Amino acid sequence: MKCCIVGGGLTGLVAALSLSADHEVVLYERRPVLGGCLSSIDRGTYTIEAFYHHCFEGDAHLFALLDRLDLRDELEWLTGTTGYHVNGRSYPLSTLPEIVAYPHMSVLDKARLGWLMLRAAKLDRTALDDVTAQSFILDHQGRSVYTSFFEPLLRSKFGPMQDRVSAAWLLSRIAIRSNRSSGGEKLGYLRRGYASLVEGLRAAIEAQGCTVATEAPIEAMQRDGSSWSVRGERFDTVISTIPPQLLGAMTGVPLTPIPYQGAACMTLALDREVTNGIYWLNMKDDAPYGAVVAHTNFVPVERYGEHLIYLASYFSGDLPAGHGNRMLSDFCDRFGVARDEVRWHHLEVDPFAGPVYETGYRRLIPEYAQDGLFIAGMFSRPNYPERSMEGSIVAGEEVAAAARSTARHG
Asked: How far apart are CA 380 and CA 364, in angstroms?
């Protein structure tokens, strides 16, 4: 079987790893670099992900992949602390004393929140696919818990689409992030960054004979009987990892569109720490970003020689003009940073950064096989109801198995 893989993100790379051992595979990526949302910024002495990433203790397929690529020794477990920025002040909320001291929630609300944190993993989250996160929290926790704790979280992740998000997503997020020690949440990171995973995957698939073409956009794909023509080359099958609505326009295959949102993530470097030692700071105050993610409050700053911070922003439709400048200006004003203290900054924009897990999303999840081709990615079932590197790896493995099975029995 000669297979074309469209998209060099994690799902596409894993599918190529599975198939290129015994099939002819060509992978096309429109950008100069591989990795998709897992791609990195090269600063010469180090690399840093363009979008913040970490993994979780239950990510078994990721760990198996690291073993296969001889990268397991790179994996380390670090403590990620969380907090909220309210009325111009950053409050840590990782330890019991910090939660007790937090002045913007009552004792009763804190007890209700603690009960939900303990129960989240035991609830049937798929049964909540048709219930909004907002209504679930209002019904079970009360308005004050929603406005003081969950509304900033939803806004930081989904921006203007926060009211459409399902309770299934929210409960899944709470459950997956329940691995807490006395000081915060245990999260995984690779010592040289996730660029080493992307580089390892590329080396492995090329060693198996896979052709990797970067800066290779695809405008259209034509079907000719049982084969496909892509960039002037004929293939027996196609695996696409791009959003279904883009693929549908490219091929004419009728595919149900998936609700997506865009992300604008600014990475910046400072010579000092400004978030009160907190790794993940949700913004309760109105700001042009929903969260401040201080990477070097998670990974030791000594590895980089400077403090690295992400400003996370989500949008639907087109990114407003000047949004990056507003993000940077607001951050500097809000956290007392002079503009000349910013050593460098980089804005990464992806209009299809991830699905919006709105109510009814489960019924939209497509099968891998679609009218003569295969599709997989962040929209696939392993990434429901919360996307992750683990889910994207499983989607890549499963779509490769589906394509191989069809070729064997076709």
From this structure: 10
Is 34 contained in some domain?
Answer: yes
Collapsing DSSP states into helix, strand and coil, what is residue 48?
strand
Query: How far does Cα 392 stand from its chain's mean position?
Result: 10
Gap between the Cα atoms of 277 and 190, Å rounded? 21
Per DSSP, what are the bridge partners of residue 309?
A: 268, 294
d(CA 367, CA 406): 14
- Closest by CA to 14, choosing from 380, 291, 385, is 380
DSSP letter for 320, please.
Answer: P
Q: Are residues 175 and 199 in the same domain?
A: no
* Residues of the chain falling short of pLDDT 70: 178-182, 410
Asked whether residue 354 is domain-assigned, the answer is no
How many CB atoms within 10 Å of residue 140? 14
CA distances in angstroms from 87 to 16, 185, 285, listed in the order given: 49, 25, 6
- How many domains is the chain built from? 2
Same domain, 199 and 167: no
| pLDDT, tens only, 215-262 | 999 999 999 888 999 999 999 999 999 999 999 999 999 999 999 999
Amino acid at 404: R
Please name which of 89, 91, 130 lies closest in space to residue 110, comparing C-alpha atoms: 91
165 and 202 assigned to the same domain: no
CA distance 82 to 61: 27
Say if residues 170 and 133 touch (Cβ distance below 8 Å). Answer: yes
What is the DSSP track for 328-367?
HHHHHHHTT--GGG--EEEEEEEEEEEE--BTTGGGGPPP
- Domain hosting residue 385, numbered range: 2-53+194-258+360-409
| Residue 367 shares a structural domain with residue 254 | yes
The verdict on residue 391 lying in a domain is yes
